[in-house]
Amino acid sequence: MLDRANRNIEYLRVSITDRCNLRCVYCMPEGGVPGLSHEAILRYEEILRIVRVAAKKGIRKVRLTGGEPLVRKDVVSLIKEIAAIPGIDDLSLTTNGILLGKMAEGLYDAGLRRINISLDSLNPVRFGELTRGGDLRAVLDGIRRAEETGFDPIKINVVAIKGINDNEIREFARLTLTRPYHVRFIEFMPTGGIATWDGGRIITADEIMDKISALGRLSAVNQDSQGGQKAKAGGPAKLYKLPDAMGILGFISALSNHFCGSCNRLRLTADGKLRPCLFSETEIDIKAPLRSGCGDAELSRLISLALAVKPEGHSIAGGIKDKYRRSMSKIGG
Ligand code: SAM
Ligand code: SF4
């Protein structure tokens, strides 16, 4: 599926819930965001229908996210069904890891092979503060269980925020010396729902790399050398390795270094909107037509429409005045 900027759109990020068992300070307000009603959320059969139509149009890669995808009931059965859709050859999930220890095996058996775990501090007290009550031990146990179960690669996503966790950047990078993880640093982004968006807290990917180079020379990793599935998983991260490291470091700079030119994704929000760009409020309602009984041809047309209105780029790096309306938990980060 080529969009108007000639980008091949083959990746659908599906938010399956807006609910979460954490309240990360950079993602949600303290009291949480008003939850969507049960009726407002797409049912599994509706998600499956959209993914089937999207797969016929050229979507190859699906990532489940949220909110916290593992809090939605029967997520394992959804995964089993998506994994069986012809054309979907890469299925992954992003989680905060709290429930992963208990669920890793079931997820793997359902056909999931790749997992991203968000983890912003290795210090239990700071982790508790950042997530407003999360238990670091549960996440570390989840990562260990995922590794034992056979997930590969295991990606750990760290949102780097000045004055909050920037003094842990090297410790996170050191993880790759002894574990085969992909540790990826993500720039803090101005999404809605957070009380104190402050551009001064952004640490750019270059600054992060600078800090890490004190541990050793970073050599660039050719994404293709990662082989098959893993190469496809590369996406917008620039990949590097420390000398003799088992794992890989990734730097995702949505703000300082646009990757819009190679953006290959569409998002489906939990309440059934196709969102062509994280940083644009344009959304196309797919739930209402779906529930009023439209055929697959109409769903296909709506997906094409999302492609037609996908912006060629964003300009948020040049001065962010307002936060975006929806928080990341509502969009599906
Ligand atoms: N709950 C799951 C999790 O935390 O992994 C999935 C949803 S969460 C919204 C997806 C990703 O968005 C997480 O890696 C989180 O760190 C990231 N995120 C949320 N708010 C962000 C922000 N303001 N800037 C950068 N990343 C953000
Ligand atoms: Fe929940 Fe993920 Fe947002 Fe944290 S980042 S509040 S875990 S949705």
Kindly describe this structure.
α1 (44-57) crosses α10 (296-308). Mean pLDDT is 89; it is low at 227-234 and 318-323. The radius of gyration is 19 Å and the shape is globular. It has a twelve-stranded mixed sheet with strand order 7-8-9-6-5-4-3-2-1-10-11-12. The protein has one domain: Aldolase class I (TIM Barrel). The chain has 333 residues and is of the alpha/beta class. The chain starts with 10 loop residues before the first strand and ends with a helix. The chain has helices at residues 44-57, 75-83, 100-109, 124-130, 136-149, 169-178, 205-212, 228-232, 287-291, 296-308, 328-331, and strands at residues 11-15, 61-65, 90-95, 114-118, 154-160, 182-187, 219-220, 238-241, 248-252, 265-268, 273-275, 284-285. It has eleven helices and twelve strands. The structure holds S-adenosylmethionine and iron/sulfur cluster.
